Amino acid sequence: MLQPVCETPDRSGPLGPGLGGLLFAPNSEVEKLIWKIPANIEFCSVLRSFHQTRYREAGSDEAGRGCYAGPVFAAAVILPRDFYHPLLNDSKQVSPENRDLLQPVIEACAIAWAVASVDNEEIDHINILRASYKAMHLAIERLTPQPKLLLIDGNRFAAYKDLRHHCIVKGDATYASIAAASILAKTYRDAYMKQLHEEFPHYGWDKNKGYGTLQHRTAIEKHGLCKYHRKSYHILPKRVGLFDGIPDIADIERNDYPCKSKV
Question: Domain 28-38+46-193's class?
Fold first, then answer.
């Protein structure tokens, strides 16, 4: 017997008008995606569905903050409180194949979702921390309906307008909405880096996605930097340890944004 992986309130939505309760049979293309679960999956503990019940919540997370090249992406997701999928987890704990399976499921089941990015030139101008916050703000701004509470992965955040927010360390492995945001931010950024790879194939961005792998560092030493590299990271090809050029969290958090709960 098929095991339910998604519950939907009795509402009109991407799975059809008035579809309620558990989904037990793949009767549409969307539902077929939902039911496409590897047979050898190990079912792990269920993520928390919500932080509280008073306000509509959105989870938000970013992808690509530590990369040498390319934009930083962020996503924001509002999920039904009874949403569940056994593959959903922190994107770093999910294989690329399973992330690709989850993306259309999240988009289909979410009450609202949005993805935004800030490019490398703006990262160099305002710094990566502020760029990450800006990408999150842009994603949150595009949500319809708007949330009343934000769940943010990490330990700090720049408040968005007058919305309440909570910062949760390892939130993408704790709350379903943050995990869903981490999946969307990662899959959309990976797809974008594959496009940039077509323009600069020697850096191997189709594989390393702009991170400082040995292949990427070797290519920088041979070909130098290109227009998509983050110049503020001071990536020096002749250095023995290229990671030394990347600002750490202490370097980029000159202006402190402590996360103070507003709930």
Answer: alpha beta
CB contact at 8 A, 83 and 23: no
Give the per-residue pLDDT at 10: 34
**pLDDT (tens digit per residue) in 87-146:** 999 999 999 999 999 999 999 999 999 999 999 999 999 999 999 999 999 999 999 999
> According to the 3-state scheme, what is the secondary structure of the chain?
CCCCCEEEEEECCCCCCCEEEECCCCCCHHHHHHCCCCCCCCCCCCCECCCCCCCCEEEEEEECCCCCECCEEEEEEECCCCECCCCCCCHHHCCHHHHHHHHHHHHHHCCEEEEEEECHHHHHHHCHHHHHHHHHHHHHHCCCCCCCEEEEECCECCCCCCCEEEEECCHHHCEHHHHHHHHHHHHHHHHHHHHHHHHCHHHCHHHHCCCCCHHHHHHHHHHCCCCCECHHHCCCCCCCCHHHHCCCHHHHCCCCCECCCCC
Indicate the pTM of the whole model.
0.78
Domains in the chain: boundaries: 28-38+46-193, 200-245
Q: What average pLDDT score do residues 6-15 get?
A: 34
pLDDT band at 36 (very low <50, low <70, confident <90, very high): low
C-alpha 176/C-alpha 178 separation (Å) is: 6
